[in-house]
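Page 42, continued from yesterday. The earlier attempt failed because a stray header line got pasted into the input along with the sequence. Redoing it now with the clean sequence only.
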Amino acid sequence: MRQLVRLFTFVKPYRGRFFLSAFLMVLVIGSDLVVPMLFGWTVDRGLASGELSQVVFYAGLLVLAQGFKSVTDYMQWVVQQDVGQNVVRDIRNKLFERLQALPVSFYRGMPTGQIMARMTNDVEAVQEYVGWGFLVQMAGVMSILGTTVILFLLDWQLTLAVYVPMIPMVLVVYLFDKRIGVAWERVREQMGRLTTVLQENISGIRVVKAFARERLEIGRFRTENEKNRQDNLARLRLEANTFPALDMMVGLAFAALALVGGLRVLNGHGDLGLFFAYQWYLWGIIWPLRFLGWLISMMRQAMAAAPRLFEILDNAPAIASPPHAQKIDRVRGEIRFKDVFFAFADEPDRWVLQGLNLHINPGEVVAVLGSTGSGKSLLVNLIPRFHDVTKGQVLIDGHDVRELELNSLRRQIGIVPQETFLFSATVRENIAYGRPEATLEDVIAAAKLAQAHDFIMEMPKGYDTQIGERGVRLSGGQKQRLALARAILLDPAILLLDEATSAVDTQTEHEIQQALERVMAGRTSVIVAQRLSTIKHADRIVVLKDGVIVEEGTHEELLALGGEYTRIYELQYRESDELAMELAQFMESRLPDARWSN
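This time it went through. Structure tokens are written below.
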């Protein structure tokens, strides 16, 4: 019930329209209670008088009452649906706003498919109940109470006889309510898993095809889809067992009315008009009880969906601007790590960084090298506050990044990540993503600096070419250069490159490296890379191992040390030499006379 009360907080901004809808519903129920009585008068007073004018008079009143009910019912439905659609819009907006505020770590434990299912199916379930299902339930309760009072006033003996078959209906509805909630929770959870499988398959379709695993993925989807079918069938069986039982009891109630009511009319204890009016009134009891199971199913569906929505809304952003954050317009680019320790929340005992100290001067190009798990990418992610340090400080121009206004901090930083993400939009829109107000001339200038202008102009519509979802029409090198252009357009004081050339060939890497040399001039740049060819021209190279800086210096200075950097250097070039030797031996064994051909 607490979840239900909380859901209705989303109705609060529209409480005026909500109460108007409730008032109109009271008028509708009131009309429902008047119309059968007018019908009874038409039969008893109109026909009994033997005068056509009396019949027309009461029939006219009946038409007017029914017309009033229809107009009021229409108005109530329009207002009610307006409230429901506003609620679903607000819930989705709140969810999306919270998703934007949540840290990257949240998405490590929440699959995209689950998020999509909650933003669509679960929100719709809540909207159906909060928007109109609740009011229909309230209308049913009012109809039952009002009709019961009138029926007892009309003929209390007949009412008792008719109500006997309805006692088991209450028991059936109670048992249905106890079981349908659990069934809907299973359906919701399974739908989330099914959506996750679908989303992962579509996102990773290239990998699926590369490894010829289509049959495996089809099997996974069919398995989850079959579970979804079974959970829905279990829910449907509950409904199938309940609704026919309710229908049977409705039939018994009408049978009791026909038998007992007919006998009372024949015995002179009631008139024919009263009998017909009574029959009509009986529907004021039957329809709420008949639909109560369906409405309970709708309510339970919303109750199963609500905790899944609140799980997102209740996830407080771990990284946000402090109450009195300092805004920065432009920084010099000095970066300092002071005694930095870091551990992920789900592994608090494993330090990824341990007492790290590093000072980067404004305009300096610093490369960070290290094996997998050394903490090099994390070091870069601490600068724009994608994560916060566990202990210690990260300072920019002497300011702790945790004390700065988050948006103004990140606007000082251009980032080119290892996995380039491009939107399903035009080339121009992707480059100008961080500065949508940028002119075409600014976009072209950034593209030229990133050495992307030439291949863009070869596209069918140049900068207005749609590049497809996630940039599927572009090569890896083209994506990286567009990402670089996007970062350049921000004109950042600090440039972060996290394995920006790891996925491209040597020639493309050389072209991007040339672009980077031009872009990094005058900017503080931090480069994370594995290829020594990418970092050996940096002003300074920092070597990380197990979260600690083990070496620091220029390419020549580190080689002279003969330590970790030298080991990595020799390993990379030795592998290249051994590969070249193996290739030469292979060619010689396959083409022994090739050296003589010329």
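Notes: The CA atoms of residues 200 and 465 lie 27 Å apart.
Reminder to self: strip header lines before submitting.
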